[in-house]
Amino acid sequence: MRHSERATSARWIFFLTSFGLCCFAGTWSAETGQSTELVVGPWSAPVNVGPPLNTQYNDMYAVLTKRGLSIYFSSDRPGGLGGDDLWISRRESPDAAWGAPVNLTILNSPFADSLAVFDTSENIMYFHSDRPGGCGRGDLWMSRRARPSRDEWSVPVNLGCIVNTAFVEIAPAFYANDDLGLKTLYFGSNRPGGIGDFDIYETTTTDENLETAFFGPGVLVPELSSPGRDTRTFVRRDGREIFITSDRADGVGGLDMWVAMRQNTSDPWSTPINPGEPLNSTAADGSPALSRDGGTLYFFSTRAGGYGGRDIWFTVRPVRRLPRAN
User: Fold this and answer.
1) Which helix (H) or strand (E) holds 5?
2) Which of 72, 151, 206, 318 is 20 to 30 Å from the Cα of 121, by its Cα?
3) Backbone conformation region of residue 168, classed left if phi is above 0, alpha if psi is from -120 to 50, else beta
């Protein structure tokens, strides 16, 4: 029987999450005219998405679109243009099987192209590439959707040498604070001035048009960084929960997913906590990406039960919004 993401995430559980924090996050509901709290339960045992997304090669960095009908991921499988490439798979409904992946040739190059993420509208894509024409050894690039509601993209454009440096910029994550009109890109970089190997940085813009937006220089986010390697992040849509890929000390395996919280979007992030098993394992687990409702998490893992090197897995948790007590 197919594991139903939708059915599982519809079960309500009102208690602490598996990583020991109570996930209550205040938001404003336009429907009810009152503030609400997002309440989530523990993560389920992860499930391998299986073929055709996973192969004997490295299949990773998956991001689900808001309707759940397209999934973008990176793979070094044959049939690409070189190294890691960006691929897409589609399905007819959230409970249907994924179709054969298609190489997004307009986005790819003979070099490494990976780690796609979208803005809120899903009309702008940010990703990492070490192709020529950038500012350093690996940069952040952008593409826009060529036609609304179509998985067709424009020729990528480098974000420029204010955000990018002569070092590596990798693994972008997008968050829009609609209350402040502020848009943030988190990313990993090994530029000088950090805490460890790779650290987490952020760059912001108030421009409405992201196609021409000016993002300022990256600023270190010390509370999310460590002496280890900190790279791929993903921010929950309400801006109060962030996932981090890190090999910092006291993890379960060599590479784990960590979680930080904040009560308000203007607050600093809390000290990241390792959620432990079943989310993490003694193998490598990383590059988390949440569904729009916050109930499904896609990530890569080399744990037992896969098909090759890195595989795409997912886990679900109950999610519900409750009226906030005054």
Assistant:
1) helix 5-9
2) 318
3) beta
CATH of domain 5-323: 2.120.10.30
User: In the prediction, which pLDDT does 20 show?
Assistant: 38
pLDDT confidence band for 326 (50 / 70 / 90) = low
Q: Give the pLDDT confidence of 248-290 residue by residue, as tens digits.
A: 999 998 899 999 999 999 899 999 999 999 999 999 999 999 9
User: pTM of the prediction?
Assistant: 0.88
223, with CB counted inside 10 A (0-12, 13-18, 19+), is middle
Do residues 189 and 201 make contact, with C-beta atoms less than 8 angstroms apart? yes
Q: Which two structure tokens, joined as six digits, stand for 3?
A: 């594991």
Alpha-carbon span 178 to 175, nearest angstrom: 9
The answer to whether the beta carbons of residues 47 and 315 sit under 8 Å apart is yes
Residue 86: CA count within 13 A, CB half-sphere: 26
Q: Taking the C-alpha atoms of 50, 53, 59 and 63 in order, what is their torsion angle to the nearest 10 degrees?
A: -110
Q: Give every strand in the sheet of 124-129, ordered side by side.
A: 113-118, 124-129, 139-144, 157-158
Other C-beta atoms closer than 10 Å to the C-beta of 202 total 18
Edge-to-edge strands, sheet with 199-205: 169-177, 182-189, 199-205, 219-220
Tokens of 60: 């990773």
**Residue 75 bridge partners (DSSP):** 59, 85
Q: Nearest-CA neighbor of 5 among 96, 127, 86, 89?
A: 96
DSSP state of 268: P
Residue 54's nearest CA partner among 311, 227, 267 is: 311
**Strand partners of residue 64:** 71
The span from the CA of 251 to the CA of 244, in Å, is 12
What is the C-alpha separation between 75 and 309, in angstroms, rounded? Answer: 10
Separation CA 73–CA 62 (nearest Å): 4
- In three-state secondary structure terms, 8 is helix
In angstroms, what is the C-alpha Rg of the chain?
A: 19
Cβ neighbours for 24, distance < 8 A, ≥ 6 positions apart: 37, 38, 39
